[in-house]
């Protein structure tokens, strides 16, 4: 899943005929001039996370001086782990009412769903629970566009009438078109503003694009933060290096996430097997230093690069290697990659605890490679949890 | 008996000439599963490992009475492949493709629901019935016997790899399996745990079911609801992996795309609670599957067919 920054999503909305406030992006308060201040303005931290208002990262200003001061304040901030590098300056709009509309995919019904309300400034999830009559939840059939009458009915049910109804209807149809056209998994306008002069405008937008669909959207190149599903903080240096290791060869996957602290290098797979392995270690009181999944039959170089990365993190005192019994990942290739990595790093498995539990395709040969390198190897003789217990036992000697 | 696949399955492979398919086809044929036809546009008239290739699903159905298809095509072609299979009356479709755009997944699942077509996946390792030696997908790899031996336990897994590991645990406990299904790692899939429990309930040979779950989705909560309503009355042994993810920041995905926790939805602890309250045997440790299976099916040790 890939989130877009707000200036990029607003530009797309504008290109598609949806009114948005005039906006520009600055990297330093020095760039602020009179031309930004033809009207009072709003300053927003440009970071790929929500709830900026609560974090104090949205501010208002009326003069150039005030704007500079407030921009500097925002540039000092780190919003939910993201240091602010850019600030969005927008014209302040004359708000009469704040509404909300979002388009996502309903995971239960497996169709697109529009959620709309004219109650602004509240958490929509709470509103659905506390005052469901104030929210319209509308499912749309795939393979069709949202028809104007459908959009009209949504707003009409919420009590919108007159000129705002006509405007809001047109905007919702266009928002749905944007949602479909750019393969969004979320398009949220909060607030959708009714202005004092009865116009409707998208004052803030969140647009997330399915990165599995980016191949058919060359126009979004560079605008979407691909792989931002682990986005509670920016990637660390080591994580960035591991992304490179993974991207260097299309075969197999190697994903690496650093944990805070930890002692055990964690080299596991696949998707479910790594969850189980991590649980197994933590249940025994051990602390993995990272979370890694590898699978899909990765080549030797990728395994080697990933292993080296895992072992390079400070404080790592051992290595746990485990997979579920593989359907296609070749154990002897895994073995070569891992053994090469530890030999290149000059690690001696006699003193540095390593436990391997790998069974599946070509495991006879894999076993030989591991054992010849002096590594403790288990195949089908132990379950994953039993192997984790062996690992924890071995760690006692070094912790 | 088994569910979904048996001796009457007449299998075709869409995308049979691709790189991905060649290994699956050779393993499948070696296992003894007959593949009646393959489909790749522009490659009609060729043969892949002895399997005749057609340009269209229509021709394959006409020549071979195909009633199940395995889709092994790249993401950009998956939606069209599924629509083609549905349009030609095929009622069982296994979609192996990973990274299908969500909007395409929504469309193909919608089209399948309208025509009462069963979709397994997308992003699935597939399923296997070892008694009839039939498998659809990469499941089992080159040596399905290692993990999948005939018996009386059904296996449902949200992880492809753990479909094998969990079936191997069943074998280690002294039993075997009727049908094992990897339902796919995505959140948008055609057949979820509850749907399969309904089928296992009707299957006379299946005496218990083991499930492997992960964070995210509401599949386990829906399964628990089914148990509460009396829709599944056999022993259900459930394991939910990824409890550690609950202490990670919200919105983080570990494992599969479907494994997203948002607010309280998707938390392993709540899934376990719901399943426990509905009467399922929820194991805290994965290894406990062995002991619980032996207790539940105790009297039947040695009788596994």
From TrEMBL, chain A:
Pfam families the UniProt entry points to: ATP-grasp_2, Citrate_bind
Catalytic activity from the UniProt record: oxaloacetate + acetyl-CoA + ADP + phosphate = citrate + ATP + CoA
InterPro entries in UniProt: ATP-grasp, ATP-grasp_succ-CoA_synth-type, ATP_grasp_subdomain_1, Citrate-bd, Succ_CoA_ligase-like_bsu, Succinyl-CoA_synth-like
One CC-aspect GO term: succinate-CoA ligase complex
The protein's required cofactors: Mg(2+)
GO biological process, one term: succinyl-CoA metabolic process
Signal peptide bounds: none
Keyword flag Transmembrane: no
Highest taxon of the lineage: Bacteria
Keyword ATP-binding attributed: yes
Molecular-function annotations in GO: ATP binding; ATP citrate synthase activity; metal ion binding; succinate-CoA ligase (ADP-forming) activity
Keywords carried by this UniProt record: Acyltransferase, ATP-binding, Ligase, Magnesium, Metal-binding, Nucleotide-binding, Transferase, Tricarboxylic acid cycle
Domain ATP-grasp: 10-220
Entry similarity comment: Belongs to the succinate/malate CoA ligase beta subunit family.
Name this protein carries in UniProt: Succinyl-CoA synthetase beta subunit/citryl-CoA synthetase large subunit
TrEMBL record, chain B:
Similarity field: Belongs to the succinate/malate CoA ligase alpha subunit family.
Identification of the protein by name: Succinyl-CoA synthetase alpha subunit
InterPro entries in alphabetical order: Citrt_syn/SCS-alpha_CS (IPR033847), CoA-bd (IPR003781), CoA_lig_alpha (IPR005810), NAD(P)-bd_dom_sf (IPR036291), SUCC_ACL_C (IPR005811), Succinyl-CoA_synth-like (IPR016102)
Listed Pfam families: CoA_binding (PF02629), Ligase_CoA (PF00549)
Any one Gene Ontology cellular component term annotated for this protein: succinate-CoA ligase complex (ADP-forming)
UniProt cross-references to SUPFAM superfamilies, sorted A to Z: NAD(P)-binding Rossmann-fold domains, Succinyl-CoA synthetase domains
Listed SMART domains: CoA_binding
Biological source species: Cytobacillus oceanisediminis
GO function terms (MF aspect): nucleotide binding; succinate-CoA ligase (ADP-forming) activity; succinate-CoA ligase (GDP-forming) activity
Occurrences of domain CoA-binding (ranges): 4-100
Gene3D superfamilies tied to this protein: NAD(P)-binding Rossmann-like Domain (3.40.50.720), Succinyl-CoA synthetase domains (3.40.50.261)
PANTHER family in UniProt: SUCCINATE--COA LIGASE [ADP_GDP-FORMING] SUBUNIT ALPHA, MITOCHONDRIAL, SUCCINYL-COA LIGASE SUBUNIT ALPHA
Keyword vocabulary terms for this entry: Ligase, Nucleotide-binding, Tricarboxylic acid cycle
